[in-house]
From TrEMBL:
It is found in: Cell membrane. It comes from the Bacteria. Residues 15-386 form the Major facilitator superfamily (MFS) profile domain. PROSITE patterns: MFS. GO terms for molecular function: transmembrane transporter activity. Keywords: Membrane, Transmembrane, Transmembrane helix. Signal peptide: none annotated. This is Putative MFS family arabinose efflux permease. The keyword Methyltransferase does not apply.
């Protein structure tokens, strides 16, 4: 985290607080459905493979939309993009809560993914633009909001899911509606018009070898990430509240290492070395989960341990993308996100299908193998991405953007 934290962190305009609260709620949505996956499967008579498509539809649309968000926000403005994203989430979260079968939930989660892409791609720009007396303190507040959202999402999902699997969806709709009103009332339109970004900018960015390599690395890494996040609730054998507590610990671990540990490591080590070591450590944790899948306490330890590694990887990878080329950060991160979410989208149903025809531990082996591929890519193409090792310390804005887009 930036060292610019000071007592003025709490002395921000109401507009900054409005965006920070909205960001907290938006990031709750990442882990919100985790605790209710088994309940949805049971209530809607769906298989684990069908239920896991809740992540697939969400991530496919999020990734596809990220290719265009920098272009859209440059045309309609950050404030309008934020409001559009929040409105879309409200509508589709409520519809998901009203769904009558798993296919409808899957479809409505896709709409939710569109809203989340619009919001998370512009929230940082909004909070920096609204900050007074320098942006560093506001960025610290923003990072804290993301950490709180990532950690409390599964906990809220567990609490509401213990009442009904529909509860987390309705809860999100209500919270996001409140965030929409707060942004509408408190966040003013910026005085300056944004610089226009070409429609094809993100696609052209994929021609840059560094961006393409790091995108491929992130694709294989995200398979392991979402095997841990989306498949583990099934073999855990806990109720919604129990799963919520486990993934509260997971989210807290991700938040702590992404905000605090990742900057410490990048100040002392080359990014390629950090990535290589963290990939191999994550693969080892996934292999351990495969062998310990029948031992509940050990599997929980693997989830929390995996979260510690994931936080570092998310932030360091996204920082690397921003430093890998001379492209504008928003364009580079949009192109990168469009690729990496494909790995997250395919992992949950593949993992569930493997478990159905093999053993409960087999999906973790699949996830570990994919993460090893990511490590191999980093090792083989280290000369291509060498620029990420020569970059200096990140500014607070770059660090916060890396945490935002990394999660």
């Amino acid at each position: 985290m930036s060292t610019a934290a000071s007592p003025s962190i709490l002395k921000q305009p109401k507009s900054v607080w409005a965006v920070a609260v909205a960001a907290t709620i938006a990031f709750m949505g990442i882990g919100l459905v985790d605790p209710i996956l088994p309940a949805i499967a049971e209530s809607l008579e769906a298989s684990p493979t069908e239920t896991s498509l809740l992540f697939t539809s969400y991530l496919v649309i999020t990734g596809a939309a990220m290719l265009f968000t920098s272009w859209l926000s440059s045309r309609i403005g950050v404030r309008t993009t934020l409001l559009a994203g929040l409105a879309v989430i409200v509508v589709f979260a409520a519809l998901a809560g009203l769904a009558g079968d798993v296919g409808q939930v899957i479809g409505f989660r896709a709409g939710w993914g569109l809203g989340n892409a619009l919001f998370i791609s512009t929230a940082l720009a909004a909070i920096v633009g609204a900050a007074s007396g320098g942006s560093s303190a506001a960025i610290v507040l923003y990072e804290a909001a993301l950490g709180v959202g990532l950690a409390t999402g599964p906990l809220l999902g567990g609490l509401l899911g213990s009442i009904s699997w529909r509860g987390p969806f309705f809860g999100t709709a209500v919270l996001m509606a409140g965030a929409f009103v707060a942004i509408l009332v408190l966040l003013e339109k910026p005085a300056q018009r944004p610089v226009h970004v070409p429609f094809t900018a993100a696609f052209r960015a994929l021609r840059v070898p560094q961006i393409l390599v790091l995108g491929a690395v992130a694709l294989f890494y995200n398979v392991g990430f979402f095997v841990l996040l989306a498949y583990t609730p099934f073999p855990l054998g806990l109720d919604a509240m129990g799963i919520g507590l486990v993934f509260f610990g997971w989210g807290l671990a991700v938040a702590v290492t992404s905000v605090w540990l990742a900057p410490i490591l990048t100040a002392r080590m080359r990014r390629t070395r950090i990535l290589l070591g963290a990939f191999l450590l994550l693969a080892a944790i996934l292999v351990a989960a495969a062998f310990l899948v029948q031992q509940q306490a050990a599997l929980i330890a693997c989830v929390i341990g995996g979260g510690l590694v994931l936080g570092v990887l998310n932030t360091v990878l996204t920082e690397s993308v921003m430093e890998a080329s001379d492209l504008p950060r928003s364009v580079a991160s949009s192109a990168y996100s469009g690729i990496r979410f494909l790995g997250g989208a395919c992992a949950p149903p593949i993992a569930a299908s493997i478990a159905a025809v093999s053993t409960p531990g087999a999906p973790f082996v699949f996830g570990a193998a994919s993460v090893v591929v990511a490590a191999v890519l980093i090792a083989v193409f280290a000369p291509v991405v060498a620029r990420i090792d020569s970059a200096g310390p990140e500014s607070p804005e770059v660090e916060a953007e890396a945490i935002t887009l990394g999660e």
